[in-house]
């Protein structure tokens, strides 16, 4: 580029630029440009058009730049102004923090340039440092998060090591695909007769007599995934100890592992004795439905008879569901059964109806037993089909001798209509008393069981003098 024959760029000079163009060039070259006097008065504030984070800063013009800086930035500005006034170097960049109002401040990196005929005016070209500051903050937060995760991992690792060292059970972790030992506790190492460093990484099958790898891995996988599978009876190769292996499959960090617990046969629970075998046979082939639930009534296991009563195709369709889903009165019946079983240990001959998967209903009698003396307390329900008995049962409701005697005394002294009404009252009173007793005076549940509204139940309780006898409403 030339002007009047002079090469401005090669000689280091700048060609003459119109004032309006110069302002646009300066505003575009920096995120924020300030023109100030030696005393710090702002003559002009230019914001880059493509950088809208600052907004409009026209109100800065006429203010002293010190008034829009934070306390820690003012000494840096004073030092730079003194340096420039003494003719010092102006090439170094200075980071200043602007503050305007409460809670709004931002860092800017400035370069200072003397302009004007007598260099009495300073041009400050600034670069917004907020993106860099935000990135630095994100890096710091990420580093702190990593440190917290590391400390948490160390804590869990310490707990795991203490648990494995303190437990008396022999267990080890095995890769589901490789069949190699991932970790083992000292009790398992002693039982297998091998040091921990030698055991980790070795194939588990080689630690037992008379086992082939493919056959052993297939049996191990079946024992870990099938709830009905039996534990594996094995003999250790080095110590000659008969052990029983119980396996549990799980996944950790995307890797499938198997937790193997080894119980010496001398101390293991004998599950194949005559009584246990008979109980298993009764459970699987008995005519009555047997259901195991937790304390909330969620089904843990059920036999084939229960699947037949509910028209369920397989165990997986009922496992994990509430037993109340299969009772006609739902949670009302389940609450009565569970509360009475957990309170007294058992409940006998509770009459209700069972609802199948497709809506079919069958009359049943349910007995419940609470098993509290085990690691995970459970409730066992024996459900018997009572639909055939309804055919041979005599119609009507059994009443007490005193109630029947009082009704019979009315014959001859009252009309048949009055006698029937009296009999209805006797039966109604007995039903209400039974419902209140079964629900342990929970009148909301009793009303649901009887098919009455809560207000109707209160009316009948007051009618038969049962309201004052019962305790507080639940």
TrEMBL record:
Protein origin, superkingdom: Bacteria
Protein's GO biological process: regulation of DNA-templated transcription
Gene3D superfamilies xrefs: 1.20.5.430, Homeodomain-like, PAS domain
All copies of domain PAS, residue ranges: 156-227
SUPFAM superfamilies: Homeodomain-like (SSF46689), PYP-like sensor domain (PAS domain) (SSF55785)
One term of GO molecular function: sequence-specific DNA binding
SMART domains tied to this protein: PAS
Pfam families registered for this protein in UniProt: HTH_8, PAS, PAS_9
InterPro entries: Homeodomain-like_sf (IPR009057), HTH_Fis (IPR002197), PAS (IPR000014), PAS-like_dom_sf (IPR035965), PAS_fold (IPR013767), Tscrpt_reg_PpsR-CrtJ (IPR011785)
Protein name according to UniProt: Transcriptional regulator PpsR
Species assigned in the record: Rhodovulum bhavnagarense
